[in-house]
Specification:
The protein is α/β, with parallel strands linked by helices. Helix content is about 25%, strand content about 25%. It contains 15 helices and 30 strands. Helix 5 links the parallel strand 2 and strand 3. Helix 7 packs across helix 11. It is globular, with a radius of gyration of 24 Å. The two termini are about 40 Å apart.
């Protein structure tokens, strides 16, 4: 009975427990179940110590041989699926000169970000450091070496290491700084180049060009975070916390797994990572379940907590929604595209895919719908639709390479008249990384770029991009607050312009060479489209809440419940 007892719902479903803002609420009815499961956990640990040589009593014991200069392989997407206990222990051991290979560098003072903040890391291999300003500053000052790799290529190279494969061919990065090695992995304090990125070989197969990405050498240690583990080392993950975890387990000389819960034996169909990939396992002591960016939805009549909307972004979002058609599988990038759900009605007939593996993402949650392991590309909590699915990051990017995703919506710094896109680095100023944008722009059949028409006084639609490229000849549609452009047979065509703005004014702000469509239309209003297509006039309202606003919001909810129930 102890071995088969399932954890209580209040423990399995953390939808009401989010980050530092929310505390787990255990009802009087489930208090016994909660402590019962704690007793079960103690019995599991006793069984593990007796029957499993992989099980370690504490994390300190499992990580005792991590030395200075070690190369660490860490899973995670934002803060979801990060082995925070392992990283906390490494920080407490005062290890230095570490190399960290991870999808992202986490939040300041937490996870891999804490090691970077304390200057314990000399090199990072990643696709995105935007969530940790300290890492970006250290790189720009020459204190940290940063080797960037597109997210899909990063996870596939690690999966190749796991599988013992020499490498793989991909179109991602063709004609960009990744292929040419045309950016600095480390700079001097004066901004000059100290170390250059490695380039990659181009090959032609059946008349099509590819880049060969070799597998990585095995790391010294690989840290994996599981939701449930059994005494045989089998692991199970929860929703978007799966991400890189099943693809990197075994890609290190020693793979260490930390688990939230222990059971005697997982059902075979529930196993995501077989125990043969795991060398050591322990039950973590602290799981903070942080949220990197908190976004909530609520009816506008309830509270007056509102932020003035950016009118340019709102206009772009409304127009971009018009391009999302019935039956499409659509990926949304970070920046402006990530805000598209804030303009959607409660029901829509296309499917949103997230690069972390979620297929079937939906609206932002209400305060009691939050699940910390269900997030979008911007690391914001979202809800899901009936019939949603979750896969690993390698499978997710396989959907893109195989063209099973019909459209991606990306932000942009610059777009050229030939359809080149630059959206991941501004040399000497911004170096957040490309994330999954290179894979998306290179592999998805249709790429829509949403961006403001001007960056201050500088135009963004140019004859040639001046920033490092994300992908060449990839853009299908450009949506700004002033106009809509499309690429037809490789030529840039103006399709729509804002009513009241002359063609000369558009031309003055658009140096790129383009032609005007003979059937030029006025800028379309997507609210008409939504009202007609979805039978809904006004979409649900949303707000981006900071900490003090969240507290006020929760207090208001409690007061309303008190008034309603007269308690």
């Amino acid at each position: 009975f102890f071995m088969t007892r399932r954890p209580p719902r209040s423990t399995l479903d953390r939808s009401s427990a989010a980050s530092d803002v929310y505390k787990r609420q255990v009802s009087t009815q489930s208090t016994w179940d909660y402590y019962f499961f704690r007793v079960q956990g103690m019995m599991m640990r006793m069984a593990f110590r007796r029957f499993s040589s992989k099980f370690y009593k504490t994390g300190e014991e499992a990580l005792k041989d991590v030395k200075d200069g070690a190369k660490l392989l860490v899973a995670g997407f934002g803060v979801a699926g990060v082995a925070e206990n392992c990283l906390r222990i490494v920080g407490n051991m005062n290890r230095k000169n570490l190399t960290i290979c991870s999808n992202s560098i986490g939040m300041p003072g937490w996870g891999p970000g804490a090691l970077v903040d304390d200057h314990r890391v000399s090199k990072i291999i990643t696709c995105f450091i935007g969530g940790n300003p300290s890492a970006e500053k250290q790189y720009l000052k020459g204190e940290l070496e940063a080797e960037y790799m597109p997210q899909g290529s990063l996870v596939e190279r690690l999966r190749s290491t796991q599988a013992g494969v020499a490498g793989f061919f991909s179109v991602t990065g063709l004609g960009t700084a990744i292929e040419e090695g045309a950016f600095s992995t480390k700079v001097r304090p004066d901004g000059t180049e100290e170390k250059k990125a490695p380039g990659y070989e181009r090959h032609t197969i059946d008349g099509k060009e590819y880049i060969f990405y070799p597998a990585y050498d095995k790391a010294d240690f690989c840290f994996v975070k599981a939701y449930v583990a059994d005494r045989y080392g089998n692991l199970r993950y929860r929703r978007a916390a799966r991400n890189f975890n099943p693809n990197i387990a075994g890609a290190g000389k020693i793979t260490i797994a930390e688990a939230e819960y222990m059971v005697d034996q997982l059902p075979p169909e529930k196993v995501h990572t077989p125990g043969c990939y795991i060398d050591r396992i322990f039950q973590g002591d602290i799981f903070t379940h942080k949220i990197e960016r908190l976004v909530l939805r609520y009816p506008p009549s309830e509270f007056d907590i509102k932020k003035p909307a950016n009118p340019k972004r709102t206009k772009i979002l409304k127009r971009a929604i018009k391009e999302l058609k019935t039956g499409m599988y659509i990926n949304l990038g970070v920046g402006i595209p990530a805000e598209i759900p804030s303009m959607l009605p409660e029901k829509f007939d296309f499917t949103l895919q997230v690069e972390n593996g979620i297929v079937g993402g939906s609206l932002y949650p209400l305060y009691n719908e939050i699940c910390v392991d269900t997030i979008n590309a911007a690391k914001e909590p979202i809800t899901v639709i009936p019939g949603f699915s979750v896969s690993s990051s390698a499978t997710s990017f396989g959907m893109m390479r195989g063209k099973h995703i019909h459209m991606t919506v990306l932000g942009g710094f610059q777009v050229s008249e030939t359809g080149d896109l630059a959206n991941w680095m501004i040399p000497g100023l911004r170096a957040k990384g490309m994330g999954g944008a290179m894979d998306l722009a290179s592999c998805v059949p249709r790429v829509m770029v949403t961006m403001e028409h001007m960056q201050g006084e500088h135009p963004r639609i140019l004859p040639k991009c001046t920033y490092p490229l994300t992908a060449k000849n990839c853009v299908s549609t450009i949506v700004t607050e002033l106009a809509v452009f499309e690429f037809e047979n490789g030529k840039l065509v103006l399709k729509e312009k804002v009513k009241g703005m002359s063609l000369d004014q558009i031309k003055k702000m658009t140096p790129a060479n383009y032609t005007v469509d003979p059937n030029l239309k006025d800028y379309q209003d997507s609210q008409i489209f939504l009202a007609k297509h979805y039978q809904r006039d006004i979409p649900v309202s949303y707000t981006h809440l900071r900490a003090h606003e969240t507290l006020r919001y929760l207090v208001c909810r409690l007061l309303l419940e008190k008034k309603k129930n007269k308690t």
